[in-house]
Amino acid sequence: MAEPFIVLSAITREYPSGEGTIAVLKDIDLTIGAGEMVAIIGASGSGKSTLMNILGCLDRPTAGSYRLEGREVSTLGPDELAQLRREHFGFIFQRYHLLAELTALGNVEIPAIYAGTAQSRRRDRAAALLARLGMTERAAHRPGQLSGGQQQRVSIARALMNDARVILADEPTGALDSHSGEEVLRVLDELHGEGRTVVIVTHDKSIAGRADRIVEIRDGVIVSDETAGGRGRRSGGAVAPVAATRGSGVISGLLNRSREAFRMAVLAMKAHQLRTFLTMLGIIIGIASVVSVVALGQGSQQRVLANIASLGTNTLQIFAGTSFGDTRSGRITSLVVDDADALARQPYVAAVTPTVSASVVARFGAAEANAQVSGVGEQYFEATGMRLLQGRFFDAEAVRRMSQEAVIDESARDALFPDRAMDPIGRTVLFGKVPLRVVGVAETQRSGPGGNQNLTIHAPYTTVQTRLIGSLSLQSITVKVADDVDTGLAENAVTQFMTRRHATKDFFIVNSDDIRQTITSTTQTMQVLIAAIAIISLLVGGIGVMNIMLVSVSERVSEIGVRMAVGARQGDIMQQFLIEAVLVCLIGGFLGVVAALGFGAIFSLFSSSFSFVYSTASIVASFLCSSLIGVVFGYLPARNASQLDPVVALSKG
Ligand code: ADP
Ligand code: MG
Questions:
Q1: Among 11-15, 482-486, 545-549, where is mean pLDDT lowest?
Q2: 78 CA → ligand 1 middle, Å
């Protein structure tokens, strides 16, 4: 003869109590055949629920053997037990244990989600089960909108969702009025009639009387086991059983479960909007500051580099004296045009231009302004990459002939020719006592933050030397290094060459690359520093997320218990809470990026000199970073949730 469906032998369940343990179930032997309807009765505290939980694989015995269809299950791991609960058992609890955030239909669907059933089939079956229990009209209601009897019917539908062969009802009528209780018992009778095994716990003898068999338990020991007989198995009641649905493919099942976990995470976030937002705030501030700092850093760096670029790339500027602070430098007259000519013949030099300058008052008509007249060679414009807006630059011929020509910049044009309609080209402006004819208008070159208050005029250096200063010495020589030559090497070569020519080092060189590198590395250092502070704030935000997730888990212990009772794996619970944490962080990250973009927009309203420069990399990185924070800081709470003991979790309801 085949082994009976359920065989418990010498089952003991002990709970730790003080120093020792107390045995709640003592040496229980119980055999239940397939299709039996068994009532377990006993006083409160006698161990009925404990026995029921062991029968339903929610709990494991301390000692003894539990064989289900010939398979030993008392030693299985949590996920194998979850599978048994999913596939074989349907629980009906005294307190219904429905999830308050879901509709009746949603509640009925849960076991099928964990079984991996496709959504449409799940819906259809849940609706059919609710219809069978006369709940079609209430399918879209939440538990809070249902009476106790209606909630219990929803929970029966849930127990039937995966077509459980064993229905375990722990005092199913305990919280119901007699009419609703009668309804529930009628349904249980029907299920028994369909051939399902029904185990019902009650302390009401009249309810127990409906079963084939009554097992009485007292202080953890079975004291009587009577088969009433006579009732036997009947054919199905008024309602035909609904065909069960099993899981579809493994992958679609996995997707199903992930989608459900995602939906639950969103529901949970919606249920606590303020708390969720406050949690996000840490992430929002962190991400916003990281992105803004990087954007601000890049904006200012670009601005500074643009200023340096106006000095020209690969340029060396040779000044007389030992350094900028040299008080004699104005009187040092060692730098001469011959030096420039000699340098121009060096192979590593692309262009050379001597520079002299004079401060004078410029006058045109009624307009008058202080101007800095820079005397330069014709190669200056190419060497510095100056951009022409109008007219032309002067040429070598003009330099040779000491022509009275000048190239003015935009700000000089604005100051000297306030009448916009007037074309400055060809006009003669008086610089000090010297008239110069304007031949071109160039883009204003900023020399750095703050800029130069003086108007900048460029004229042939020969003209400035002879007519404005009356001295042949030079202030500086600008050398543009040939494209294929390293600026540093060229600087060394120029130093050696000039030292040999002058027999002493009476000059110093400013290398545009050095300035660029210094500024780049300074701004980078600043950026790293501020970003580090911002990252610390992100970390603090992450800890906030972890804290709230821990609260969330402890608040939802009973929900977790219900999910486990209907067959959720540890991984399913873990996934749900991890998704919630990651979602909080991702939305926080998104809002943070939006906030950073907003700061940039506001900033640009108040500052025209430079703006935020956002890099895609920093935005992508911030999203990655916020998901990572979600995973890292959500892991501990999610793991805590997944490792809850289902019985303990359920009892917190
Ligand atoms: P019943 O359902 O018959 O009223 P239970 O099976 O719920 O009784 O409980 C039986 C006994 O086990 C009670 O005395 C109860 O206090 C004890 N008990 C139940 N769960 C625990 C637990 N987690 N830790 C310690 N004692 C428990
Ligand atoms: Mg109980």
A1: 482-486
A2: 21
From 290, 292, 286, 274, select the one nearest 541 (Cα to Cα): 286
Sheet of strand 63-68, all strands in order from the earlier edge strand to the far edge: 20-32, 6-17, 63-68, 71-72
Place of tokens 């208050």: 453
Tokens of 385: 């990459």
SS3 state of residue 9: strand
User: Do 489 and 479 meet the contact criterion of CB atoms below 8 Å apart?
Assistant: no
Name the one residue in this structure whose structure tokens are 């040092």: 332
Range list of β-strands (E), 189-323: 197-202, 213-218, 221-227, 315-320
Q: How many CB atoms lie within 10 A of CB 350?
A: 18
**Inter-CA distances, 21 with 15, 43, 124, 242, 652, Å:** 5, 21, 48, 45, 22
- Long-range own/partner contacts, residues 251-258 (CB < 8 A, 24 or more apart): 252/116, 252/118, 253/115, 253/116, 253/117, 254/116, 256/113, 256/116, 256/117, 256/118, 256/119, 257/113, 257/114, 257/116, 257/572, 257/575, 258/575, 258/579
Please, which residues bridge with residue 9 across strands? Answer: 65
pTM score of the predicted model: 0.71
CB 143 within 8 A of CB 96: yes
Return the structure tokens found at 630: 């979600």
Helix H or strand E encompassing 7: strand 6-17
The residue nearest atom 12 of ligand 1, judged by CA position, is 24
Ligand 1: residue of 11, 13, 15 to mutate (most ligand atoms within 8 A of CB) is 15
Please give the number of the atom of ligand 1 that sits closest to the Cα of 203.
Answer: 3
Q: Which tokens hold the place of 461?
A: 């250096």
**592-634 per-position pLDDT tens digit:** 999 999 988 888 888 766 778 888 888 888 888 888 989 999 9
Q: What CA–CA distance (Å, rounded) separates 419 from 416?
A: 9
Give me 217's structure tokens. Answer: 């338990």
Backbone angles phi, psi at 176, to 5 degrees: -110, 155
Q: Are 97 and 121 in contact (CB under 8 A)?
A: no
CB 506 within 8 A of CB 334: yes
CA of 111 to the centre of ligand 1 (A): 27
Q: Does the beta carbon of 46 sit less than 6 angstroms from any atom of ligand 1?
A: yes
Question: Nearest 5°: phi and psi at 389?
Answer: -100, -30
pLDDT interval class at 450 (50, 70, 90): very low
Written as one letter, the residue type at 194 is E
Does the pLDDT at position 312 exceed 50?
Answer: yes
Q: How far is CA 324 from CA 334, 445, 493, 631, in A?
A: 16, 21, 21, 56
φ/ψ (deg, to 5) at 31: -125, 130
Task: Dump pLDDT digits (tens) for 138-160.
Answer: 999 999 999 999 999 999 999 99
For the chain, report the end-to-end CA distance as a whole number of angstroms: 43
As a whole-number percent, the residues of the chain with pLDDT over 90 amount to 39
